[in-house]
Amino acid sequence: LKLMRESRAWRRARAMPKSLGVDDEGKRIPNRERAALFKATQVKFGFTSAAVQKFAEGCRDACWIGGHTGSHDVQTTSLRAFKAVQQYAFGRRGRPRFKGHNQLHSAEGKADAVIRFRMEPVPAVHWNGLVLPLRLDRKDKRGWQSQALSSRTKYVRLVRRTVKGQTRWFCQLVQEGLAPQVHPTRDGVVGTDVGPSTIAAVGGTDALLEQFCPEVVQPWRESRRILRGMDRSRRATSPGNYNPNGTVKRGAKRWHRSNRYKARQRRLAETERKLAARRKQAHGRLANRVLALGTTIKSEDVSYKSFQKNFGRSVKVRAPGMQMAIIRRKAESAGGGLLDIDTRTTRLSQFDHTTGEYVKKPLSQRLHVFGDGRTEPVQRDLYSAFLARCCEPDCLDIRRVDETWPAAEPLLRRTMVSLLQPASGKGPARPHASCVGAGRPSQGGGRSCEATDVVAQARAVESVDIGTLRKPPPFRDGVVQWMSRKPAEG
């Protein structure tokens, strides 16, 4: 790649225009001469998948591994390395870091060749004389296993995993066709609003606002103790790798790891493995609930890297980007898809359809107060999800918002009744608590707020002077709490 970029032919191809103009339909005409010059340069310098695969086969035949793997397995592994460099050459990913010694955890073939699966005489995986019988689930009441095994096996993947400190080997069968649909889906449009730890979804018949994988609890204190113990062990066994001020020296170093260090490392890896498994299950269940509202998902094109920088601890546990990737994959498998909405042109969190104006709100304000003074406030994430449902890829359809709001308003309020969404964190379990923010009761005898039933309070909204509110009313524990400078009349 480096030599190819330094060649004159590559530089001449980069200087050529990408398109030759626009046709009658408004589409760009690609410059085929530029593409042909790029391709010829890649072939000249051997920057192709075929060249890398041929080189990998030579490496295989020169060592002991040649008698254990076939050409298809080696070609697939080398193709993974080539794709990593190719994405780096296109500027889509960063500089690749290749697998080191004892770090390659999976291998697969192009077809059912060397590593193959056979149903006769018994369902088993055959590889170089080794026969691994297939373990079937006897409680397969719905017949998902038999339906999957009836399809043609395209190829077999070997996977190595560490479970409870022990190395386990698994075989993954990649079957032809689509996976059987287990959970019901519905054709329709769903608007979503994704945050660092929550997601709001509004469909035609229902709405939801939930936290990502609430059952995943990160043991921060225990993990911190393990990491501190590992650091002390490294400093004790490798004192020459540190400067007098405690920082790590630059350059190549040789680390000595004790048995206690390795035990702590295995303990930390097992904890993260369990959390990852729980997170994956929770993401799958939530994705099935979203697809039950509709298979066409509309969501704002937010930056998940920005979430990582600003809400690192929350994103580490909740993984909103992984959740949306699962939703996208399942929606496409069900015949729908995930449509991204431009946040700069729509600004859904700032728009008010009753006045047609854009008003910025702080993150601590969890309710959207309408500017007309008559419409009752709603939860801001649910309202943004409703607006996303009425969006096109680059604009908001105001007429559609006005037409669908009367039918969508009861859905949003029904979801708000059982909602537990303070400004941050979980709300108090008791219906009456002092008003101190972050969902925690007061500890210093602060001024308490009156908590009333959400339905009764919603009916009395018109009697409250919006201008006398100290701040937008927070919503917590299924209760709307108002802070007013003077008692409401009526």
What does this structure look like?
With 490 residues, the protein is α+β, with helices and mostly antiparallel strands. The chain contains 15 helices and 19 strands. It has helices at residues 2-6, 8-15, 32-44, 49-61, 71-90, 144-149, 220-237, 259-291, 304-310, 312-318, 320-333, 343-346, 380-389, 398-417, 454-459, and strands spanning 19-22, 28-30, 106-108, 116-118, 124-127, 130-133, 153-163, 166-175, 189-194, 198-202, 207-211, 296-300, 337-341, 351-352, 357-358, 367-368, 378-379, 475-476, 479-480. The strands form seven sheets. Strands 11-10-9-12-13 form a five-stranded mixed beta sheet, sandwiched between helices. The chain has a three-stranded antiparallel beta sheet with strand order 3-7-8. The protein has a three-stranded antiparallel beta sheet with strand order 4-5-6, with no helix packed on it. A hairpin with a 4-residue loop joins strand 10 and strand 11 (207-211). The longest helix has 33 residues, at 259-291. The termini are far apart. Mean pLDDT is 82; it is low at 420-490.
Summary keywords:
16% strand, alpha+beta, 490 residues, single chain, three-stranded antiparallel beta sheet, five-stranded mixed beta sheet, 15 helices
Short structural summary:
The chain has 490 residues and is α+β, with helices and mostly antiparallel strands. The chain contains 15 helices and 19 strands.
What is the helix fraction of residues, given as a range? Answer: 25-40%
Radius of gyration: 29 Å
Sheet with the most strands, sense and barrel status: 5 strands, mixed
Number of helices: 15
Indicate the proportion of strand residues.
15-25%
Rounded average pLDDT: 82
